[in-house]
Every structure is written in C-alpha cells, then in structure tokens.
Amino acid sequence: MHPRFLRSSLAFAFCISSAAWGQSAGPQNAPQNGGDFSNATQPTTKVPKDVILVKGAWASASDSVTPIPESGNIVNNVYTNQYFGLTYPLPQDWYQKFQGPPPSDNGRYVLAQFRPTDTFKGAVRGSVLVTAQDMFFTQMPAANALELINYSKDHLPADYQVELPPEETKVAGRSFTFFAYWSPATELHWYVLATQIRCHTVQLAVISRDTKLLEKLVLDMNRMKLPLEAGPTAGTGGGAVPVCIKDFAQGENVLERVDAVLTERRFNSIPVRIIIDKEGKVKHIHFLSAFPEQEKAITDALKQWKFRPLLKDGQPVEVETGIIFGRVPRPVMAPQSNPVSE
Amino acid sequence: MKHRKLPLVTLTLVTLFLAGMAFAQTDPGVQGGSRGTGAPLASVASDAGLTSFFTDGQKRFQDVESVKGSPNGNNGLGPRFNSNSCVSCHSQPAIGGTGPAVNPQFAFAGSSIAPADSRPFFITQNGPTREARFPFFFNSDGSANTNNPNGGVEDLFTVTRRTDAGSCSLQQPSFNAAAAANNLIFRIPTPTFGAGLMENLDDSTLLNNQVNNLNNNFGISGTFNHNGNDGTISRFGWKAQNKSLHIFAGEAYNVEMGISNLVFQQDRPLPGEDGNGGSGGTGLPANCLNLTGTGYPEDTSNPDSTPNAAVLDDVSAFANFMRLLAPPPPSTTTPGGSASIARGRADFIAIGCATCHNPTPGNTQPSNITAGLGSAPVNSFSDIEIHHMGTGLADNVGQGGAGGDQFRTAPLWGLGQRIFLLHDGRTTNLITAINAHDSNGSEAELATDLFQSLSASQQQDVLNFLRSL
Fold this sequence. Notes:
The structure holds two protein chains of two kinds. Chain A is an alpha+beta fold. Chain A has helices at residues 3-29, 145-154, 211-220, 292-302, and strands spanning 58-61, 73-75, 78-81, 86-89, 94-95, 108-116, 126-134, 161-171, 174-183, 188-197, 200-208, 243-244, 254-256, 269-276, 282-290, 306-307, 310-312, 315-317, 319-326.
C-alpha cells in the first residue's frame, strides 16, 4: 500500500473512531437537541399562549363555508349566528368577555355569553347565556323546546323555586316558551326563553338579582332578528335551510351505506350532523365532538353514502339529520315516539 | 369653625374606608389547627388487622429512599426522580395530603440527594412541590414540535454523582429552554384523603349524576375519562387518568421516585430518552440500569416477612394506606361561623359550582375491604367528570380521553387546609383560583360570573364555606 494512502486511511479510521466514541458518550453528558433536550434558550418560535392545541374530542366541519351552530360571532356589538338565522344586538354596556366551551357530545352548545362592561351603570350585575340543544342528540325525554322547558321545570333542583311556570309568549315576533325561577339563597332570578330552530332548542337565559334588569333585558330581546317560524325553508341566515328530520339516515332512506371503521375504542359519543343534497349525497358533515382519527374515518365512510332524495311538493329538497357513532348515550327516560322534524 | 370640620371629615372617610374593607371579600386562607385529617376510617381504627396495614402503609409512605445500600432496605430511587419520599409531596395538612408550605424539593439540588443537579427555576422554597411536563418534544432548533406531543413527566432530578449511584451520569431535561419555548407546564400533588371512597363509587352512580346534571342552565356538560383496559371510568389524577389507587401508587412510585414495582416494572427514562420525539434515544444508559444490583422490580413483595403487613410490596402498602384514609372532616364553625358557612354552601350550589363540584356524587358500592368504604356517602365535591376549563387553565397535555383543556373536577374536600391551588399550584389565593375558572372555552364561565355577581358578603360566605371544607 502506498504510504501516503495508508496515512490517509489511518486518519480516516481515526476520524470514524472518534465520531463513534463521541456518539456513544454523547447521550449521557451532552444530549443532542431534540426530545427532552435543547440548548436553545431563544427559540425562534414559541408555543402560542392561551391556545388549546391538544384538543381531544372536538368539533369540526367538512367545510368552512356552511354555517354551523358554534360559528356565531359578534361584530359592532351585535351577535350574529348564521346557522340559526339569528341576530341579537347586545344591550348597551354589555359584552362577551369569553367564548363558550366546544359543543358537548350530547349536543349542547354555549353559543354566547354576555356580561356587563366595566362602565355598566346598574347597581347589580347580570348575565345572559345563549345556548342551543341539538334535539337529535339530547338525552332528555323531550322532542321540542316546550317539552324541554317543561322537563326543566318538573326537575328543578330543590335549591330553586318556580316563579312563573312555562308559558307561551312572543319575542321579536316569534313564539317562545318563557319560564322563570329563582334561588332564595342568592336571590338570583333566572328568566328563560326558549324556541325551536332547525331541530335545536335555542335558549336565552338572563340571570340577575335585579328583576327590573331582567325585565329590561327580556324586553330588549325584541330587537333580535329571528328566522320565520319553523317550516321547510325557515331561516333567513345561510340561504335556504334544509329540512331537519331526526333519524332520517336509516331504513329505506339509505340506498348505499359504507360503515366507518373506527380502529380504537375511545368510549365517547360522536354526534354528527349531516346535510344531504337534493341528489341524495352527503354535502356537509359537522362533527359536534370527535377525535381526529374518528373524524377522518367517519368522513371517508359518509361520503360514500347515498340517500333516497326527499321530495316536497314533488321537488327534491335538502335534508339535515343526525347520526351518532361510537358510544350511544343513555337517555334520561324512554325517548319520545314523535320524531323531530321541521 | 373650619378647623373643627376637618376631624369630622377625616373620621367619616376613615369610617367609610374601614367599612369598605369590611365588605371586601377575602380568602380566609389556610385553616390552622387539627381537624383530625389523616386518620383512618372508623371501621379501620376498630379493626386491629386493618389498622396494622394502615400504619404499615403510613410508615412506608414516609420512608426516604436511596438508590442502594439503605440500612432499612429502602432502595431503588432513580435514576431520575422528583422526590425521594411520598410524604415530601403528600404531607399537608397530614400524611397523605398535598404539598407542604416549605418545599422539600428546594434543598435537593447540590445536596447529597441530587449532587450534580441544578435547581429548576420554578422550584422555590415556599412554592408548591411540582412535577414538570413538556407538552411537546423539542425540535432541533429548540422550538416545540407541535406535531409531536409529549406530555410525559420530565423528572427534575438525577442520581448523577450520588455516592450510591455508581457511574450513572444523566443530564436534567432542558427546563429553561422549555420555558423559553412556552413548552413547560406543572402539576402539583393531589391529596389522597377519602380516596378509597372515590375508588369505590360504582360507574352507574357517576353516569346517573351526569344525566341528572344535563338539566342545568349554566352551560355545563361534562364527560368521563376511561381506563383503556376494562373500559370503566377512571378517576384519579388531575385528568382522571388513573383507574385505581394501586395504579396511582405504582405510577407515582415509578414516575416520581424512579422505583420500578409490580405495576410498572421498568426504570423509567424520560419520554424522549425512549426514542420518542426524534431524539434517537434507546432508553436509559446501561450504567444507569439495575442500580440496586438486585434486579427488577426494585419494589416487590416480601414472602418471608412478618407480620402480615410486611409481606406486601410498597405499592400495595401505599394503596392500602390511601384507601383506608378517612375523608377530611370539615369544620362547621370556622372560618366565619356556622351561619356564614351554611349560607355560603347554599350560594355555592345556587350559582352552579355544585353542578361539577357535586357535594355528594353518591354512595359507594358495598365494600369487601372494610365497612367504612361500603354504602357510604362520598362528600367529595366532585362529579369525577372531566370538563373543558378554557384557555386560561389548559395545559395542552392529553391523557386518555382528556384533551389539553379538560380536567377532572377537583374534589374540594379538605380545601380549607390546602395551601397551593389549581393543577399547577399557580396561586394560594382562593379568589384567584375561582376567577381562573373564567376564560375562553371554559364550562365554568357562567358559574364564575355568577360568583362575581354576588354581593361582597355573599362572596365572603362562599369563601368561608370553601375554607370550612
């Protein structure tokens, strides 16, 4: 072997040897960046604060254009919810400080919550809670807003007393059920207004120790804009609204069905609202609560489903319905026999 | 005449100021004195056999562990650990409780316990005992890799250069870098009084509570975390990630103290040391394994020992101790007097706090261990459900079915004598802790708002009630 080549080979071998030695000693004394270790005390990017990145079971939708219940927003102090076709001008000196939690796996939404600003002139504070209960997924033995409110009245905990039993009223030209109760301990009063929109019970609860404030808040709700009474094309927001029918996605209505394959038992309920187009295909999927891998598997399956188009007056119409995947929640009592539809 | 007016005006202002002070609600603070917390269940105290198991477990709970060579045979510590004794994190206000006023972890670094280590910046002498987690693994540039969730416990200390640890040499995780990347969260110890009662609640009781609570006008809808093995509701830990007290004890012994045991058989590397997070790690170095020289698990049963209690492994002894601990007795009179406490309790329920912090989620199922655990009310002030707590409390750690902002409703029994509050011990002030329930995405938003809607004296009643627990 040429001496120069030999020297080069030896030097190369030494280099390799050093590298190997350094590697084996490295993890104990000077771990490389990555995993649990980093030498960078000034990283270029940071985990954003006050953001929930690890979401667990969460809400999502197959597109960002179609309105969904939780997508309401506040602009110029007016709460607008395109899904429900609802606008609610907030009372003066009231605002939403924080957004509500994600939809629950039994179809409960906190749409908005308002409280007085720091410049509020009243002596006593109050709160406004706007919620919706998806009647496709409720565990309550109720098929509509009136039944739900009646159930609430009949099962009011002992800490509260009924002030006014449920009665029909009109707010902003629309039928509502009004119900009032109070807590003798705190002297807090709840005035609850509920109506039915798109197979949801939309509920506005105003709460305060000051009943005059509550009356003012309820009167102020006449400034709301709401969709027309329930009907096949009810609702002004989001264009023509589909007909909503509970349990539509079963029996003879389903022409082709591909079951979703969920690979892991997660113990959760996965309530899904779908909109079926006039040709009978699934055009929109809204997961109220699902883990990401569940969302993907169910979406892949639902896109292959084919439904018998629903005809109204001889014309096909879009249908909105709900399906529960995963764990079926236990109802409080036997469900009502009359299916929900509008 | 003018100069005579001044004292009157001054007096009026002082009176108004003092009156204002009197009506400003304050946290009554940690309640002193002994309420009898830390005692065994009455049915245990009257049974000599069970009492021997309770006291044996209580003693082991206080043992200080070494890596090897302990004269008392308390070996197996490390190679990574957060503390060397259960009681260092579970001692307030009695053995089995939560973190004490003076943090034992403060003295570890540089001492014979962890001679080569630096004290993490978040461990302070009078701060909470803590464990740390990185929600995400590091990228090579020091940023958090949000595509690669971590969430595992990053032990604070190592056995490096201990006289009983041989040549094992390890580096502490990069806490400063994690903090710089906003990739560092904390958890404090949960108290274990009454834990046996919570363990013995049947799932059906919890499920019935959940359904009954659906009918609330507070915007609250919880769910449960589940044990992946048998599918039943899990209930211990800040995210209800642990099914039983045996698993709870076994995991803590392994993760917090580095001691392998009958439930968790291996020495635990850091999350990334096991090859996760792109570190390329292949586990703990060979010279950090089997440091006791006795093989695994380091904690095992002792078949030849007497009396009966001594036969048990440490984890079983710990679990028995916790299981047999009586719930913490509340005070009916302090702070604030019985009338204020009673009013506060009623207010607490009326404003919705009790929807999650359920005063009594139910009675236990019959017990085959001791009568005190069977058919007994569980006054835990917790529904054991997990709830969305919003961005303000979210830690971005997922555990089982619980996402980054979901936490088990913290049981409030014993709250009167707890020092550090919330999952990370960020505050000692009850009002701050209540207000922290209010943030974007929290189920407790309205209940917190209603608390703030109460009059000052009503709020004080609620605070008195909470500190009476």
